[in-house]
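## Example record

The block below lists the input lines for one assembly entry, exactly as stored, with component labels intact.
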Amino acid sequence: MVNPITTKMFEDMTREELKAVKLKPDTKVIVESISEGPPSIESMYEEYLAAPHVIRLIREGEEKGYDAAVINCFGDPGLAGAREVVEIPVVGPGQAAMLTASAISHSFSVVSVLKNVLPLIRELAQLYGVESKLASARSIDVPVLDLEKDVEKTRNALLEESKKALREDGAEAIVLGCTGFTGLASFIQERVNVPVIDPLPTAVKMAELLVDLNLSQSKIGYPKPPK
Amino acid sequence: MVNPITTKMFEDMTREELKAVKLKPDTKVIVESISEGPPSIESMYEEYLAAPHVIRLIREGEEKGYDAAVINCFGDPGLAGAREVVEIPVVGPGQAAMLTASAISHSFSVVSVLKNVLPLIRELAQLYGVESKLASARSIDVPVLDLEKDVEKTRNALLEESKKALREDGAEAIVLGCTGFTGLASFIQERVNVPVIDPLPTAVKMAELLVDLNLSQSKIGYPKPPK
Amino acid sequence: MVNPITTKMFEDMTREELKAVKLKPDTKVIVESISEGPPSIESMYEEYLAAPHVIRLIREGEEKGYDAAVINCFGDPGLAGAREVVEIPVVGPGQAAMLTASAISHSFSVVSVLKNVLPLIRELAQLYGVESKLASARSIDVPVLDLEKDVEKTRNALLEESKKALREDGAEAIVLGCTGFTGLASFIQERVNVPVIDPLPTAVKMAELLVDLNLSQSKIGYPKPPK
Amino acid sequence: MVNPITTKMFEDMTREELKAVKLKPDTKVIVESISEGPPSIESMYEEYLAAPHVIRLIREGEEKGYDAAVINCFGDPGLAGAREVVEIPVVGPGQAAMLTASAISHSFSVVSVLKNVLPLIRELAQLYGVESKLASARSIDVPVLDLEKDVEKTRNALLEESKKALREDGAEAIVLGCTGFTGLASFIQERVNVPVIDPLPTAVKMAELLVDLNLSQSKIGYPKPPK
Amino acid sequence: MVNPITTKMFEDMTREELKAVKLKPDTKVIVESISEGPPSIESMYEEYLAAPHVIRLIREGEEKGYDAAVINCFGDPGLAGAREVVEIPVVGPGQAAMLTASAISHSFSVVSVLKNVLPLIRELAQLYGVESKLASARSIDVPVLDLEKDVEKTRNALLEESKKALREDGAEAIVLGCTGFTGLASFIQERVNVPVIDPLPTAVKMAELLVDLNLSQSKIGYPKPPK
Amino acid sequence: MVNPITTKMFEDMTREELKAVKLKPDTKVIVESISEGPPSIESMYEEYLAAPHVIRLIREGEEKGYDAAVINCFGDPGLAGAREVVEIPVVGPGQAAMLTASAISHSFSVVSVLKNVLPLIRELAQLYGVESKLASARSIDVPVLDLEKDVEKTRNALLEESKKALREDGAEAIVLGCTGFTGLASFIQERVNVPVIDPLPTAVKMAELLVDLNLSQSKIGYPKPPK
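Predicted structure tokens for the full assembly:
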């Protein structure tokens, strides 16, 4: 798993949170952060800054013999490029979460951090072919790096926006729109009584699924760069 | 797992084929067939004949404490109704396979048994929101109950149609369009060099994924019938 | 015409209401109810319970020499399967009403009984290719079997939701979303000044249209089941 | 019924062909041609030339007490404008035929006169919301005014293109794409075994259906011009 | 440039307003009004009345050696027909403005004169392929011929509806939905801080762009009428 | 104008070719290449490598007082990110060319260099909202850096694929799918008699259009990154 940001703090948090995910006993998740790039990602600009470094780490992961790669950011920065340069499956939490939401509901809302990222999320839904299922994209107006400062505030804001999405936007399920929310899904799910999808664990389980089914990205769709 | 047909032969075959799927060590798949209904499913008419019995078995499964249900037919007969009456996740191989194909390719083709089922497959793609990803639906013109009579013929016909889908229809991946094809995906995948998705194993892994992530169908989208 | 429910009361009501529909003098509508199945339909589960019995009655109707079949439920339960097994045109009120609404408006809303059925109605619109015309699906929160208990309440609730659809959702026409509403369209239409489409009479007139034009469902799209 | 062209010959032909349509005994069709405008319509330019005159005739028809208006051209020239200025339902054969095709098939092809009109037909399908059902638009390369010169040639060319549409384009039904083809549908239908929709009779029956159901175009969607 | 209305007053106004547009030094805009037709356009009916006269003037313009034609009305009356009969590029402000809005935003709203024209605007967006980008169509409820009576009122109403579109409809840009608004864009843009697109100047610049790039409408898509 | 590749040779070529474009007399195009990044772009991987450097150059351009930026690559690498960080309009040739094609045809094909880039081009069409207009994406199977080695071969291959697109795919116009083709459009256009859109000159003219109309990307859609 690649953290596409240079903020090391997230590495430990991610490791901690992944312990709560029910994986296969022989699944081992190695978390690595890029050494150069943005401290957090809340724009396409920062996605572009991160992408080359994400791809490099994934390529190194393949060389080390890892079975799959997961990008630890809802925006899936570098996903298409990484899929071109490696053979192992590369999974993005944004795609994994939105497809899983499509599987268990007719329409879902994504609740994310800042307003800034809402156009990006709508574009992702469009690219992944699920835009007709996207009821709305909402934000709690808290920057990524502040999420942990006041977890209770984050949690309550998420709950509030999730309720609005269900009441006003016709959503049947909620997708948490930032991997910085990892671990908060069950709190929300218990209170809103609809599926709440946690993108990072979903991506890791999706990677397991692909590896176990001997599947990876199509090399027609993601061909090796010519040189 | 519910076999939506009365042909017992398929029960043993399914059990055998599931052994090859890499499941979690503590995952146990119980295969049961409906006792009344069609011998095979190649039309909406037969889906309707099977659906009430499929739903009854799934409800019984929930009462017995099973964690999830999988319907053993690409047409996902009874899926929406079953999701209404139970709380545990109900997975259809058609939906699981087409969403997985969407995750790893930009467009895919479904290769199925008889021409008869092609309109049904296109309708499923529409309902599941992946019609823009469906490059084509093709058939090998062999009825379900004859698939095993000449496995080599089945395999070669599948390979032939898969190649056509890649060459003529712009597909980047192949979805096997019948759970009677279970076990043939790797043969095709080795020869066409693109992902070939086997719907039944994919559905079982998807059920694992949902259970491990504590997710099930939205009860807004699949509400309990009023009486 | 097939009533897909076992509640005989509806049979007489339907016969009564059909008297008010302007049919050709030689058109005769025979109303029959299924003898086994759900008392009313407000879920996919109940649609599946009804479907095999609906199809059996339609097949018998064809054998008796009837010219067309109409399913007396907005959800069109069993429609696709019935179209496969008979040659005579089979008409569903849901499809007939939504296509007629598409012919005379740019966008319409469906007002139905319970919230439960709204996802089904949206799926029908999707399958019938009119989802871009569906402004909204709304409910009056009255179960089918209570519609007749307080007709005035039903009527007023319908009027209320219809007005909201016009004011808030951008609808240009209203489709009554349950054949239990038969006969109430003119009351609403006089008050909202836009077309209000009554699904059952529309389906009967559509059946006349198809018979008079010597048309029936395509047997490529609805092929005879192989055995 | 308004003939949107000045070629009087078509008037008699249309009257003759309408005799074969099974109408209600009390339905009377009055056929009138515009006195100024194009001799035939095979372009948007000619549609625009015809439209103001079509609308004037329809307005006069309403004043004379007619119950509905039908425009005798597959391109539905003047349809939206006519619907604005009158209260009686105005029906276009292009819309009536394509919606009827949508009702009885999953996809259809339109076979028309000249290549020139194919972009117009695709635009109509888009406007009427059925473009996802339009398998293809094909032409027989015969101008409208030559259709009657060699009816057998016309018929055979229609049959040929219809067969291609079924074989190559995935159509399940055929829509004749010119009201100059009126009367040829049964010949084709008997030979291709799928529904062949004749736009003019379909439009007349659709007008009957709307009148009998007391429906007309929505005045929200087709508001009266302000002065 | 063709004014598709007979109200001469607009001719001078248009000439005045075009002076403010930054054109190439050698670009000369000749403004001409149709001599017969509607005084203003606020319905499809009036578009049809204007279209034949618009096309005649454009044809004359081509004969005089003009390089391009622009229709001075947001509804682009006669556009498709004019493109068929001439070789020089014909530009409609509606299309030019909506495509330009698509280029610089993910979604935009059109603010126009009367409610009457909103269905027309939605249909244009559909035909031009930008309906998924159209956040909403709104009106200020002032008829075209009253726009100049109280310019301040017009301006403030435009500003008000623009703000609502941004706040309530998710628009990222505003398209002025009537060429009678020419010159008001900068007032609004300064106050809402998003791009405000003025359709007439945009159409003139688009005509320059096409001429300079030696481009015109495709004669496959807009073929010469057969006679 | 930013060349998103390090191959300096292209700089001079681009300057040369831009001389042939009819710009306003006071328009000055400054061509600069990135100093670090890929030698050519034929994959998402290379787009990601180029993007951060492209954005840096564009930011510097804004600081130098340039009025607009154009990215010299059909894939529009870095476009969204650049639009976030600057206020001046940033134009991508892929978007400019596809929107211009949409303005003058109902459907167009893109003919590009290698098969590798076809999925990227289809994704661009999807993002830009013109996928319903994209008839096909085709390649001539020549890498970017070989285009100039045998210009005649390049030209003939382009002509060949363009003809196929018109004959087999239903295209009405051709978009050259690589800015390395700059200057070849007129050769093709003269031979196929439909508009052939040259992306780089189109982008430059589009930049002029935006500057002259005082328009830039919406800051709601492309908000400034939070830090």
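The mean pLDDT of chain F is 93. Chain F has eight helices and eight strands.
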